[in-house]
Amino acid sequence: MSESRSKIHLVMGGRVKDPRGLEFENLDQIDLVGVYPDYEEAEEAWRSKAQQTVDDAEMKYVVVHMHKLLEPDLPEDA
Known about the structure:
Number of helices: 2
Distance between the termini: 5 Å
Shape: globular
Structural class: alpha+beta
Largest sheet: 3 strands, antiparallel
Order of helices and strands: EEHEH
């Protein structure tokens, strides 16, 4: 990977309308956990938050691959 490019990841979560989906109930109440420089750190943060809400099926945390949104044509191994 090029040193100038960072495959940043966002970890966020909130209450979803359907536990099988990703439609959040209230975007004003999204928990923005943080932005991480690689998937491994993002996954660690996601696991921590997901574990805290494991008993609440309507709470969902996700890892968003920001680099895929910012540079959709960037190959995975770049």
